[in-house]
Structure formats: structure tokens, C-alpha cells
Design brief:
Elements: H1 9-15, E1 22-23, H2 29-39, E2 51-56, H3 59-67, H4 74-77, E3 80-87, H5 93-105, H6 111-127, H7 134-155, E4 159-160, H8 168-174, E5 181-192, H9 205-208
Antiparallel strand pairs: 1-5, 2-3, 3-5, 4-5
The structure holds flavin mononucleotide.
Flavin mononucleotide (FMN) binds next to loops.
């Protein structure tokens, strides 16, 4: 597939694989930007968009990251690696105002909803009824954006490898990541080199989907 061809969403999902080796070919700037643009179309609670991506393209940066990632070769082989982070500070007052302004500029905000956000978001983070820790919350959102990124990338002919094989404290120290920002995964992006690992299969729908209550047949 050449860079100008695109895959349908269905084909991109079917054909995406975790690439463990990459060719050195660069990702054209326009394609990289389009992958990022589509990735951040991902949804988020209150549209808070807590994901943050550090885009590594320089060999020195990737070598530094590989040293924090159990020496996994895809980190230095891939032309681009994203350090995918989630920022816990999105519940601060100024940030909430910036989300309200964004919504207002898009014609999607009322005064009533803005007031609701001002009171409900701090409450959500104080009570956190639907998450155990703030890190669970940042991970929930960032990984959803990572899923968008991977499918968008594949639809544009770009392979990826989601990675949790890294030492978070080392990555944070090396890349000036603040304490309140969680490193959720690494995402090498580029053009896969052969051979790909054999597809490991997926459990049948009946095994992972339940009907009406947990454990009941779908
Ligand atoms: C959150 C997450 C972390 C992963 N971490 C690594 C990793 O550190 N190194 C690696 O080579 N693959 C990693 N993988 C890739 C998985 O091994 C791979 O997705 C899985 O075996 C299924 O293969 P497929 O994606 O090619 O269908 C990770 C995948 C996910 C979703």
C-alpha cells in the first residue's frame, strides 16, 4: 500500500498488528499530523481530553527511551515514537474554563452546562465513583485515544506497537514529565518490517460478551 491509499475502518482494524520491527522509512509529516489529528478526536469525559503525547523523532531521544523500555528494538527502529501520557491536572479551574471556552467557540456550550461543568468536574474527582484512582482515569482516556491513533495510523498505511514494557519513573525523569502526569503507554509508529509475529487469535464473542448480567450467555 502506498501512502496515498487508505484502508476502511473495518480493514484497518482487521489488519492492524503489533509491529515488533520497523523499516527505517520516515512517516511523511502530513500523514503523521493526520494520525495525531484523528487520534485526538477520541471522546473523553466532559471533553476534558487529558491525553498528552510526546513525539520523538530524533535518534538520541529514542535511544534514551529504549533504555527505559527494556531495550525493545522497536523503540529505536520506528521513525516516530509517542510517549502517551495522561494529565491529572485537567480538573483544575483554569483548565475547565479552557474546555468551556472551546465548547463555546464550537457553538456547543450553554451557560447552564458551563456552570454544571464547574461544579460537577471537581466533584467527580473528589468522589471518583467510577474510578479507583486518578491514574485509572487518565489511563482510561489516554488508551482510548491510543486506540484511535492505532486505527487511524493503520488506515493511512502506518503500523504501530502499543507498549507497556517500560519503567515509568525512568521515562518521567528522562523526558521532564511532571509528577501529576501518568505515562500510559509508548507507541512506536512506522512501517513494519517482516516477519510479523503470527497472529495470536482472539477469543470468540460468546466467551467475552455476556447477556444482561455478568457471566450469562449472550
Ligand atoms: C497495553 C499494551 C501493552 C503492550 N506492551 C507491549 C510491549 O511492551 N512490547 C511488545 O512487543 N508488545 C506489546 N504489546 C503488544 C501485544 O503483545 C499485542 O497487541 C498482542 O499480542 C496481540 O497482537 P496483535 O496486536 O498483533 O493482534 C502491548 C499491547 C497492549 C495493548
Amino acid at each position: 500500500m502506498t501512502n496515498s491509499q487508505t484502508l476502511s475502518c473495518q480493514a484497518a482494524i482487521e489488519q492492524r498488528r503489533a509491529a515488533r520491527a520497523f523499516r527505517p522509512d520516515p512517516i511523511p509529516e502530513g500523514i503523521l499530523r493526520e494520525i495525531l489529528r484523528l487520534g485526538v478526536r477520541s471522546p473523553s469525559g466532559y471533553n476534558l481530553q487529558p491525553w498528552r503525547f510526546i513525539v520523538l523523532r530524533e535518534a538520541g531521544s529514542k535511544a534514551k527511551l529504549r533504555a527505559c523500555a527494556f531495550d525493545q528494538r522497536q523503540v529505536t527502529e520506528a521513525p516516530v515514537v509517542l510517549i502517551c501520557c495522561g494529565d491529572r491536572r485537567v480538573n483544575n479551574k483554569d483548565y475547565i474554563e479552557s474546555v468551556i471556552t472551546l465548547g463555546a467557540q464550537a457553538g456547543a456550550m450553554t451557560d447552564a452546562f458551563a456552570d454544571y461543568m464547574r461544579s460537577a468536574i471537581p466533584h467527580l474527582f473528589e468522589q471518583h465513583p467510577c474510578f479507583e484512582s486518578e491514574e485509572a482515569w487518565t489511563n482510561r482516556h489516554t488508551m482510548l485515544a491510543v486506540a484511535h491513533l492505532m486505527i487511524a495510523a493503520k488506515s493511512l498505511g502506518v503500523d504501530s506497537c502499543p507498549m507497556e514494557g517500560f519503567v515509568s519513573a525512568q521515562v518521567k525523569a528522562e523526558f521532564a514529565i511532571p509528577a501529576e502526569v501518568d505515562v500510559c503507554c509508548l507507541l512506536p509508529l512506522g512501517y513494519a518490517a517482516d516477519p510479523l509475529k503470527t497472529y495470536g487469535g482472539r477469543f470468540a464473542i460468546e466467551q467475552v460478551c455476556y447477556g444482561e448480567q455478568f457471566g450469562a450467555t449472550f
